[in-house]
Each structure stands twice: as structure tokens, then as C-alpha cells.
Automatic annotation (TrEMBL):
Residues in DUF7800 domain copies: 45-134
Organism field: Spirosoma sordidisoli
Coiled coil, from the record: none
Listed name of the protein: Alkaline phosphatase family protein
Record keyword Transmembrane present: no
Pfam short name (any one): DUF7800
Signal peptide coordinates: 1-22
Keyword Oxidoreductase: no
Highest taxon above the source species: Bacteria
Domain PhoD-like phosphatase metallophosphatase, residue spans: 281-407
């Protein structure tokens, strides 16, 4: 009996030892003393860190790990290592694609800060600068500071296994290096910031995987780490090509959008509509998908593009705004009068209504920034009795370029010398005293070579 009990005890002890061994993660290593070592923090980093919105009293930051981890940001004023501050620690989870939104809220207006990413309490060493800034308190004190921002749309990152056969559609990833070299204060991602494929847009798993795949592009990381980022979506990051309000998985892609971007607000429960200010300028981020009727629907009052409540909010917000320049950011071209592809002109009734509302409200300083078309061009719509409406289309970043149709180039709205049919980005600068602000537009190709430049004075938009 004693021997039986001894054998039984031995079996139990052996099973316990095996179970304990099995519970040590595969990625863990064992030290000479037999203590499991932690995984190096850099090996847990999937993408980011990314700097999100900036305000005077807080700045948003974002990071993604590749498995559950505790993440935190340590930051200090540039050139002053002490005192240093810590954001709250966030635990990443698989159900939210291991993403984390962090908030630096011990900041002062008009300051630049350096920061470090901590994973599991350990610093992650990165081979590029990690900085952010807070917005200035200039009102009632000085003229607004000069600033500049990048603009781009249509970011396609190849994945051979699921892409269409043939010549890869994405290329020129060095464009993000060229963009980062310009050191913009912030970046406007104006739609198609990732391209869902057939294997993606029918499942939450597919959507989150696609967002992760694009965000993980190595060439993109230095730009994300030190440039504030704001985004809207268009059809490809919303759903399938040319998708509209009928897309069946739009709550899922909205969830993904909010997980991967750090915009300061969302006006509605559905869609990506929002707004932000930078110095004396305001940016109105519009959603051209969530409320959009099908392109093929006959034109008329029921054929909506932005939809009734978004249109009402936009006009109200523009009326309230005191901004010098009021940038309306959306995917499809607005000013182009050609009723083709997904231009706003295909929705002629609503387009006319918007233009009439802008005229009747006598709102100064309005201009549009758009993407979608895989080429860059500046267009100008003259309006009797008031100032012209400009529409700057900037596209593509890494997707395949495309030329406009010949009949489009014959439109009176086209400004000569502004067509670019290579991969490119925009760099916009606002400068000058408050009573004479000037918007400078420059367009660069993927190598960082300037292709054209134009100035637009605020006085011209009154």
C-alpha cells in the first residue's frame, strides 16, 4: 500500500511539473538561474508609435503591439529632460487589435516635447525622433504662428498573396521618407488610407488585419512618430470599391477607423465626420460614404452624398467658425463639374444645394481638399457675386496613378500647370499677419522633387 501511494504521489508531482513547464510562453527564454526572461520590448511592437491630435492642454498618442502588453508614454519638454511625465498605462488586447490610445495631459500651450515608448515598463529604442507639440495660445496676444501640413490620399501596400495578379498596384513607399523630410506640423490623410481586399471586407478579422498590414509599413513609421495625424476615409478604407450607405459591414470598418486613428472628435455616432483647429484655421472632416446613396441612382433630392444631417451640421459649423481659412476635407472631387466616376457632380442636386448654401450664408474663407482620383490638380469655380471656390485634389501616395479624362481637362475650372499624374503629396503652409494670411500650396513627387507651387491670399476668399 505504501509503495502504491509513493508511486501515485510521484505521478502527480511529474504531471504538475510538466503542466507548469507548458504554461511558460514559447517566446520566453530562461536565464542561467532558471528564471523566465521577459520578451524584449521592441519585439512586442507592431506599429507606431503615432502622434494623434494636438491641442493646448492635451495630445493623443497611439501604438500597436503584436500580443497583449502594457504600454505607456514617458515625455518631457524638448531640451529639458526633467521633469518627465507619464501617461496612464494601457493594456492591449486581441479584441481591439492590440491597439492603445494614450493621452499626454500634463502639457503646456505652445511647447515641443520629446517622448519615449514603454512596453512592459521598458523603453523601446527607436532609430528616429519621437516628438510632439501643443498648440499655441496666440489669441489676443500675437498674430497666429505660421504652420504647414502634409496632404495625401490613396495608400496601397502590396500583399502578393491576396492582390490581383500582375503588376503590383502599390509602389513608391519612399514617398513617406520624402514627406517626413519636410517636417510638417501635421498630416491630413484624405481617404483610401488603406485598401481592403476581397478577403477583408466581409469579416471583422479581415478588416483589422488589413488596417494592421498597412499601418505596419516600415517607411511610414518615422512620419507617424513625430507628425500629428488626422484622417477621413473614402471607399477603400470604408469598404469595397465605390461602396455607399448600403455596405453591410460599415459599423465594423468604423470601429477599425476609430481604433487606428486618433481624431479629436466624432460628430455623429455613425461615420467619421469631425473637425479640428490649428492656429487660425479650421478643418472640417467630412464623411462621403456613410450617408451616400448609390452612384447609379437617378439624380434628385433623394440622392444624397453627404446626407441631410451632415450637410446641416457643416453649414452651421461654418457659420460659427471664425477661422481665416476653412478647409473642407472629403474624398471625392467637389468643384470638378464633370459628372463621371464618383465626382460630386454625379450628385448634382445636392451639390447645387451646398454651393447655394455657402453663397447665401456669406461664409468667407472656404476651400476644399480632396483625393480619390489618383492624380493631383487644382480647380477653381467662379461664382457670380462672391469669391471663387477652390478644390485641391492630391492623389495618390502609393497607389497606382491615373490620368483624368480628356473632357475633364477642357473644363473651365482647371488651373493650368497643376496636373500631376505621378505619385505625389501636398505641402500647404499658412503664414503672414492675421489680417493678411497667405496659403502656399506646394506639390512634391515621391522622390521629394517639387512639381509646382501656388499662393492663395485669404483676402481673395471674401
Amino acid at each position: 500500500m505504501y509503495k502504491i501511494h509513493c508511486r501515485l504521489l510521484l505521478v502527480i508531482l511529474l504531471q504538475s511539473a510538466l503542466l507548469a513547464t507548458a504554461q511558460v510562453p514559447v517566446t520566453s527564454r530562461t536565464s542561467k538561474t532558471g528564471t523566465p526572461r521577459r520578451a524584449a520590448p521592441a519585439t512586442l511592437l507592431q506599429s507606431g508609435p503615432m502622434v494623434g491630435y494636438s491641442d493646448s492642454r492635451e495630445v493623443a498618442l497611439w501604438v500597436q503591439t503584436n500580443k497583449p502588453a502594457r504600454v505607456q508614454i514617458r515625455y518631457h519638454e524638448a531640451g529639458k529632460p526633467s521633469p518627465a511625465y507619464l501617461t496612464s498605462e494601457v493594456q492591449t488586447h486581441e479584441k481591439t487589435a492590440f491597439t492603445a490610445h494614450l493621452l499626454a495631459n500634463q502639457v503646456e500651450p505652445g511647447k515641443k516635447y520629446a517622448y519615449e515608448l514603454l512596453i512592459g515598463g521598458q523603453k523601446v529604442s527607436l532609430p528616429y525622433p519621437t516628438t510632439f507639440q501643443t498648440q499655441n495660445l496666440w489669441q489676443w496676444r500675437t498674430d497666429p504662428p505660421a504652420f504647414r501640413f502634409g496632404v495625401g490620399s490613396c495608400t496601397y501596400v502590396n500583399e502578393t498573396a491576396v492582390d490581383r495578379p500582375g503588376t503590383p498596384y502599390g509602389n513608391g513607399y519612399e514617398i513617406f521618407t520624402a514627406l517626413n523630410a519636410q517636417k510638417p506640423d501635421f498630416m491630413l490623410w484624405t481617404g483610401d488610407n488603406t485598401y481592403t481586399r476581397e478577403v477583408d471586407w466581409n469579416s471583422r478579422t479581415g478588416v483589422l488585419r488589413r488596417y494592421t498590414h498597412t499601418r505596419s509599413l516600415p517607411e511610414m513609421q518615422p512620419l507617424l512618430a513625430s507628425t500629428h495625424n488626422y484622417a477621413i476615409w473614402d471607399d477603400h478604407d470604408y469598404g469595397p470599391d465605390d461602396s455607399d450607405r448600403a455596405y453591410w459591414l460599415k459599423p465594423v470598418t468604423l470601429e477599425a477607423f476609430k481604433l487606428f486613428w486618433s481624431n479629436p472628435n466624432y460628430i455623429f455616432d455613425e461615420g467619421c465626420t469631425g473637425t479640428f483647429t490649428w492656429n487660425d484655421c479650421q478643418f472640417f472632416l467630412l464623411d462621403d460614404r456613410t450617408f451616400r446613396a448609390p452612384d447609379a441612382m437617378p439624380d434628385g433630392p433623394e440622392k444624397t452624398y453627404f446626407g441631410e444631417k451632415q450637410m446641416r451640421w457643416l453649414i452651421d459649423a461654418l457659420r460659427f467658425s471664425k477661422a481665416t481659412f476653412k478647409f473642407i476635407i472629403t474624398g471625392g472631387q467637389i468643384v470638378n463639374p464633370s459628372a463621371i466616376f464618383e465626382n460630386y457632380a454625379v450628385y448634382g442636386t445636392e451639390r447645387e444645394r451646398l454651393f447655394n448654401a455657402l453663397t447665401e450664408a456669406r461664409i468667407p474663407g472656404v476651400l476644399f481638399i480632396t483625393g480619390d482620383r489618383h492624380h493631383t490638380i487644382l480647380q477653381k469655380l467662379d461664382r457670380p457675386g462672391t469669391y471663387p471656390l477652390y478644390d485641391l485634389t492630391v492623389s495618390p501616395l502609393t497607389s497606382g496613378p491615373a490620368k483624368p479624362r480628356p473632357e475633364e481637362l477642357k473644363q473651365s475650372t482647371v488651373i493650368d500647370g497643376t496636373l500631376v499624374t505621378d505619385r505625389n503629396f501636398g505641402l500647404l503652409s499658412v503664414s503672414g499677419p492675421l489680417n493678411d494670411r497667405v496659403l502656399n500650396i506646394k506639390v512634391y513627387d515621391q522622390k521629394g522633387i517639387q512639381r509646382w507651387t501656388r499662393d492663395l491670399r485669404a483676402a481673395e476668399l471674401k
